Amino acid sequence: MSFSFHPEAEKEFNEAIDYYENLEPGLGYDFALEVYSAVKRAIALPKAWPEIESDIRRSLVRRFPYGILYSEEQGGICIVAVMNLHRKPGYWKPRK
For residues 78 and 70, is the Cβ–Cβ distance under 8 A? Predict the structure, then answer.
């Protein structure tokens, strides 16, 4: 299985990496590793994570207040948001 990012989700991911890297050198890298771990878990068991909206599921990121919102697609998952859990909950819905 593979994965792809919605362009806005990829932008969020890169901005969060930059944010954490500016807080402390190396923290952005740690964040990226944790996000990719959450993505790998979602790929391995795509139906194991709770459905938060029709066909959109959320895999939580360890150590950081983020969730990976994704939908299943043929042969993989599409990440629609790298969501800060303290952000307005439905901001990503127009991306579906």
Answer: yes
Dihedral sign from CA coordinates of 39, 41, 44, 46? negative
Q: Is the dihedral of CA 28, 31, 37, 39 positive or negative?
A: negative
Q: pTM to 2 decimals?
A: 0.89
DSSP result, 20-89: HHHHSTTHHHHHHHHHHHHHHHHHHSTTSSPEEETTEEEEEPSSSSEEEEEEEETTEEEEEEEEETTS-T
- Tell me the torsion sign for CA atoms 43, 49, 51, 52: negative
Residues 6+ apart with CB under 8 A from 89: none
12 pLDDT above the threshold of 80: yes
